[in-house]
Amino acid sequence: MRERFAIYYAPAADTPLWRFGTSWLGRDPETGADIVVADLPGLKGAARQEITESPRRYGFHATLKPPFRLARERSADTLHAELATFAQARRPFAAPALEVSALDGFLALTPGTPWPEMDALAADCVTTFDPFRAPPDDAERARRASAPLSARQVGHLERWGYPYVLDQFRFHMTLTGRLDDDVRSRVRTILADQAGDSLQAVPPVDGIALYHEAEPGAPFRLIARFPFAADG
To answer: Is-above-0.90 flag for pTM?
Structure first.
């Protein structure tokens, strides 16, 4: 099967952060609805659609466990059950303010201060759910290995199927594809203006989400949310 799953952080649908992210990208991955991409001062809607094409397909999110195909002996039902159990044992935690940052040529939301609780959550998602991950095929492995990687990242790629996990993880919510320097600077200013107060009043992290890609190239859909339920 060529479908893939991913474990992501996704703000609740009734929060300003979710409304900002989905409206900016022009798609709500939970409902599957397209959102009209209007012109903004200094940025036409058509240009905005072009620079958000890649993150729009993945949906507004922050990656915890990157997309993976299910191991042959695992099922989607078992993955759902394990995610529910995992989430029920975790406590919500506070989120710092976010900011629009340039990362490797693209723009994303990142925390303005260290966020050890999120780092720990991402690491636990990577390791706990690794038995559900089928090994990457040759094409996937070659694509990942083609990027400039450190020795540490190569080790993670071989062990976990992705180079930017554990100590190499950096929380980010992608907002654009790669942009030229002058375009990136201009769009960064526009994004900060559009985001407004939603980056300062970030809701507590109170759950994780499962996203699904039905077939290669299909848009990712948010198919289930798993709330944290531990006391304290």
So the answer is: yes
Strand partners, 37: none
180-229 pLDDT, tens digit each = 999 999 999 999 999 989 999 899 999 999 999 999 999 999 999 999 99
Q: Which of 221, 224, 225 is nearest to 58 (CA)?
A: 221
DSSP the chain: ---EEEEEE---TTSHHHHHHHHHHTB-TTT--B-----BTTB-HHHHHHHTHHHHHH-S-EEEEEEEPBPTT--HHHHHHHHHHHHHT---B----EEEEEETTEEEEEESS--HHHHHHHHHHHHHTGGGBPPP-HHHHHHHHTS---HHHHHHHHHHS-SS-GGG----EE------HHHHHHHHHHHHHHHGGGGTSPPPB-EEEEEEESSTTPPPEEEEEEE-----
Burial class (CB in 10 A: 0-12, 13-18, 19+), 115: buried
